[in-house]
Specification:
Family: Belongs to the short-chain dehydrogenases/reductases (SDR) family.
InterPro entries: NAD(P)-bd_dom_sf
Low-confidence stretches: 162-170
Strand order of the largest sheet: 1-2-4-3
Distance between the termini: 28 Å
Strand content: 5-15%
CATH superfamily: NAD(P)-binding Rossmann-like Domain
CATH topology: Rossmann fold
GO molecular function: oxidoreductase activity
Mean pLDDT: 80
CATH class: Alpha Beta
Number of helices: 6
Oligomer: single chain
Order of helices and strands: HEHEHHHHEE
Number of strands: 4
Number of domains: 1
Keywords: NADP, Oxidoreductase
CATH architecture: 3-Layer(aba) Sandwich
Radius of gyration: 17 Å
Structural class: alpha+beta
């Protein structure tokens, strides 16, 4: 999340490669079997759950510049690089839902989860670090509670995933 700029071993910007491109590739590889399964089992039985973050709103105003994915994006802050990768997850989920209506797609934001990640966030920004150290214990949820958003999206018996805000995070309709 608050990593310095860098590249994956395949030469992609580190945050986008880790948080988005790897997941998108896995989904693409699994898509044929998911589509066949959806035809056999019925609507809503096959799902893709994309984990995002409220930080998707911190992506650069220009959005995702795809030509820059093969650069280290050093002109962006760590928060912008992370936000861009999470925005990519949201947009990819929306596009998948549009193109593949037989598969339920959910874009899930579990909220602030106390994973220890906030301990390293803002390591170069004292103000940010102080704010996080105060907010995380108050607003953050345990890992056990944070994962409930994903589990709900994977296992909800409801046919259609609905927009809602609950104690376990945001659920975003993408179909």
């Amino acid at each position: 999340m608050d990593h310095p700029e860098g590249l994956t071993k395949d030469g992609y910007e580190l945050q986008s490669g880790t948080n988005f491109l790897g997941h998108a590739l896995l989904i693409r590889l699994l898509l044929p079997i998911m589509q066949r399964t959806a035809l056999q089992t019925g609507p809503g039985d096959v799902r893709v759950v994309s984990l995002t973050s409220g930080s998707h709103a911190r992506a650069p105003l220009a959005g995702i510049l795809f030509h820059s994915l093969k650069t280290d994006a050093s002109s962006l802050s760590a928060v912008e690089r992370y936000g861009k990768s999470k925005l990519a997850n949201v947009l990819y989920a929306k596009e998948l839902a549009y193109r593949i209506p037989d598969i339920r797609i959910a874009s899930v934001n579990p909220g602030m989860v106390r994973t220890g990640l906030t301990d390293v966030m803002g390591k170069n920004n004292l103000t940010y670090r102080v704010i996080l150290s105060v907010l995380s214990p108050i607003m953050g949820v345990s890992v056990e509670k944070g994962v409930k958003a994903q589990l709900w999206a994977w296992n909800s018996p409801e046919y259609i995933l609905k927009n809602s805000v609950g104690s376990v995070g945001w659920f975003l309709v993408t179909s």
